[in-house]
Amino acid sequence: TVNGVLAITTTTLPGGSVEAAYSATVAATGGLTPYTWKVASGSLPNGLSISASGNISGTPTATGTSSFTIQVTDNETPTVTASASLSITIAAEGCTNNAVLKGNYAFVNSGWSSSTAAISVAGSFLADGNGKISGGFLDVADQGSSSVPQSGTFTGTYCVESNNLATINLTY
Fold first, then answer.
1. Mean pLDDT, rounded, for 9-31
2. Count of alpha carbons within 13 Å of 57, Cβ hemisphere only?
3. What one-character DSSP code corresponds to residue 131?
4. Contact call for residues 91 and 130 (beta carbons, < 8 A)
5. Fewest CB atoms less than 10 Å from the CB: which of 34, 38, 59, 121?
6. Is the pTM above the cut of 0.90?
7. How far apart, in whole angstroms, are the C-alpha atoms of residue 19 and residue 97?
8. Can you tell me the distance from the alpha carbon of 55 to that of 36, in angstroms, rounded to the nearest whole number?
9. Mean pLDDT of the chain
C-alpha cells in the first residue's frame, strides 16, 4: 500500500491573547495514521503545549512571538517523520486581532483645540502586526497657535480587539 509522502499541511497558526484560552490543531497528509506530534526545536509560547494528536492548547501567560519547529511521525514501519517551522504571536489581553493591522497606513484628523481653534493632524506610520508602531511621522496645523505648522516623528502601540476596533497609543 502506498500512502503518499508524509507532509505537514499547516502553514500558519492563529495568534492568541494573554490569559485567554488558546486552541489550534496542526494537520498532515500522507504516511500511515495515527500521527504523533511534538515540538522538535524552539518552544511554544509560555502556557501552551502540544498533544500527541497535534492539538496546541493552553492559556498563554506572556506576550511575544514564539518560533518553533513541529515534527510529525507516522505509524509506518519504519516510521517516517516530517517537520515544519511555525510561530504563534501572543498579544496583550483582549488584543486578539493585531495581525489585521500590518503595513503602512496614513491618517488625517480634524477638530478643535482647547483654544476653540481648528486643528488638523495628518501622518503616516508602519504597524508590525504584533501591536507595535514604528516609523511614524505627523504634521500638525493649529489655527490657534501663532507658530508655524509643526511636524515630527512618533512610535507607539496598538490593540485590535475581536470586534476589529483598535486603540492606538502614540508617543510623540
1. 91
2. 7
3. S
4. yes
5. 34
6. no
7. 15
8. 11
9. 88
